[in-house]
Amino acid sequence: MYLHPEVETLSRPDIEKLQLKRLKATIDRCMHSPFYKERFQQCGIKPEDIQSLEDLQKIPFTTKQDLRDHYPFGLSAVPLEEVVRLHSSSGTTGTPTVILHTQHDLEEWANAVARCLYMVGLRKGDIFQNSSGYGMFTGGLGFQYGAERLGMLTVPAAAGNTKRQIKFITDFGTTALHAIPSYAGRLYEVMEEMHIDPRRDTHLKTLIIGAEPHSDEQRRRIEQMLGVKAYNSFGMSEMCGPGVAFECMEQNGLHIWEDYYIVEIVDPVTLEPVPEGEVGELVLTTINREAMPLLRYRTRDLTRILPGDCPCGRHHKRLDRMKGRSDDMMILKGVNIFPIQIENILLQFKELGNEYLITLTNLDANDEMTVEVELNDFTDDYGFLQNLTKEITRQLKDEILITPRVKLVPKGSLPVQEGKAVRVKDLRKTLI
């Protein structure tokens, strides 16, 4: 059951003992970072002031803007000649964020991803296909090295070219696939067009999904379509990439590896800790990284710590699936709405497909929401479509407290993205 039993089966007291030891070493290392050295001096904090895990709250938060303001190497805690790789965001909307890695960091990253893949039943002899982008995007190389660490035959298919992905799956006997949820749905649609039955014509058994918020209903649909078990994963480039948290075979929350990270959940407005079990913003501190440790990094991802123990025997805390990002929240008529709330409703209707688009407009100073969603099958039965539209609208209003305009569109009408799905188009910004 365990790739690293000496760590995965630690008791809560032993986990916290290891965390404190590694936290103190991390803070000492941060004193070699120009950014953190100055930050500690400004706040009047010394490394010896941190004597417990609770003392971590004395340290200010680190944000994505901090990384941008000190681009490219201002948060490095080691000389540049000790760095062997960097990853960066695209930087299409401003200064990119850069994350640096020593060889030790890359080895530990591979170990963490391998631990995750082993936890969901993957072993040497499996054939692992990765449909993530490679290069600066961490999902490609992160899963690549983790899969290789387990000794699996890996297929670095990269993103896009769906028919080629399917050819690789069928020709190479792929048993495990990594794909974002929306792209998994796209793969099935193209398989249907090619008259390929994934249950009959492939050896797929395991799917790793993540990188975009998705509902449990979407996961169930994907499992049914492809005939696989789909496991939720969480990672972000600032924390290395994939391998931060992963579901086990119980599929009841993502175990976050607390020998690598200290977890906090805070109110995104007040920044005060929230009680365990309540939703808030995920804050992470790295405690096993050399080149660029991050203290109390605000991820902007919204989740909660699940109470209780997992039957798998691991005592590392479990995170609920991501509810979205604090900066993805839509505000209409004073109501806070997340796209995942709308998806939860839409995917309960078997008549609807996987693709939808939320468009926000402003007419005469009045915010409006239009939800376009594809039908699974064409029909010209006007009465049926009218009743279906009314029921979808009613359930959406019950969930989000405002009445959207629902438009049912034919399958294939909405734009298809090879990367992360674009679910919201906010046209209000263009009218200001």
TrEMBL record:
<dbReference type="InterPro" id="IPR045851">
    <property type="entry name" value="AMP-bd_C_sf"/>
</dbReference>
<keyword id="KW-0597">Phosphoprotein</keyword>
<dbReference type="GO" id="GO:0047475">
    <property type="term" value="F:phenylacetate-CoA ligase activity"/>
</dbReference>
<protein>
    <recommendedName>
        <fullName>Phenylacetate-coenzyme A ligase</fullName>
        <ecNumber>6.2.1.30</ecNumber>
    </recommendedName>
</protein>
<dbReference type="InterPro" id="IPR000873">
    <property type="entry name" value="AMP-dep_synth/lig_dom"/>
</dbReference>
<keyword id="KW-0547">Nucleotide-binding</keyword>
<dbReference type="Pfam" id="PF00501">
    <property type="entry name" value="AMP-binding"/>
</dbReference>
<keyword id="KW-0596">Phosphopantetheine</keyword>
<comment type="subunit">
    <text>Monomer.</text>
</comment>
<dbReference type="GO" id="GO:0010124">
    <property type="term" value="P:phenylacetate catabolic process"/>
</dbReference>
<dbReference type="InterPro" id="IPR042099">
    <property type="entry name" value="ANL_N_sf"/>
</dbReference>
<feature type="domain" description="AMP-dependent ligase C-terminal">
    <location>
        <begin position="334"/>
        <end position="428"/>
    </location>
</feature>
<feature type="domain" description="AMP-dependent synthetase/ligase">
    <location>
        <begin position="80"/>
        <end position="284"/>
    </location>
</feature>
<keyword id="KW-0436">Ligase</keyword>
<dbReference type="InterPro" id="IPR028154">
    <property type="entry name" value="AMP-dep_Lig_C"/>
</dbReference>
<comment type="pathway">
    <text>Aromatic compound metabolism; phenylacetate degradation.</text>
</comment>
<comment type="function">
    <text>Catalyzes the activation of phenylacetic acid (PA) to phenylacetyl-CoA (PA-CoA).</text>
</comment>
<dbReference type="InterPro" id="IPR011880">
    <property type="entry name" value="PA_CoA_ligase"/>
</dbReference>
<comment type="similarity">
    <text>Belongs to the phenylacetyl-CoA ligase family.</text>
</comment>
<dbReference type="Pfam" id="PF14535">
    <property type="entry name" value="AMP-binding_C_2"/>
</dbReference>
<dbReference type="GO" id="GO:0000166">
    <property type="term" value="F:nucleotide binding"/>
</dbReference>
<dbReference type="InterPro" id="IPR051414">
    <property type="entry name" value="Adenylate-forming_Reductase"/>
</dbReference>
